[in-house]
Amino acid sequence: MTDIELGPIRPPSESQSLLIRVTRGCHWNKCFFCGLYKGMKYSVRPTDDILEDIKISVEVYDGINFTSCFLQDADAINIPTEDLLLIGYACFCCRSLTKSVYMMRFGAFFISIL
């Protein structure tokens, strides 16, 4: 079995969320208050790798009812829209992991997928 790639943090508010890493690091990486991604180059993970992580999550977390999906690292919503929709659809198709109404969180933004 392949390992699932996870980011360095899980916000406390996401304790019941499935974590899906879509980016690595932060594109800005100059905030005075944050040193989390210093020395890490920002990159968007290949969509195929993200979809593979979702597929593996179905096996690893079998039977766990996550309440939402949290897209990791910083700037997760900075990926191409068509890739974001594909990732959202893949998560939605894995409804054994989730409740019937699926919520994806992008920092302060919420998108319901019915």
- Mind summarizing the main beta sheet? 4 strands, mixed
Total domain count: 1
Mean pLDDT: 79
CATH class label: Alpha Beta
SS field, number of helical segments:
2
CATH topology group: Transcription Regulator spoIIAA
Structure description:
There is one protein chain. With 114 residues, this protein is of the alpha/beta class. The protein has one domain: 2-Layer Sandwich (Transcription Regulator spoIIAA), CATH 3.30.750. The protein is built from two helices and six strands; from the N terminus they run E-E-E-H-E-H-E-E. It has a four-stranded mixed β-sheet with strand order 1-4-5-6. It starts with 16 loop residues before the first strand and ends with a strand.
What are the defining features of this structure?
two-stranded antiparallel ribbon, globular, about 110 residues, 2 helices, Transcription Regulator spoIIAA, four-stranded mixed beta sheet, alpha/beta, 6 strands
Ordered list of secondary-structure elements with their pairings:
Elements: E1 17-21, E2 23-24, E3 43-44, H1 47-60, E4 68-72, H2 81-93, E5 102-106, E6 109-113
Helix pairs in contact: 1-2
Brief account:
It is built from two helices and six strands. The chain is of the alpha/beta class and 114 residues long. The strands form two sheets. Strands 1-4-5-6 form a four-stranded mixed beta sheet. Strands 2-3 form a two-stranded antiparallel ribbon.
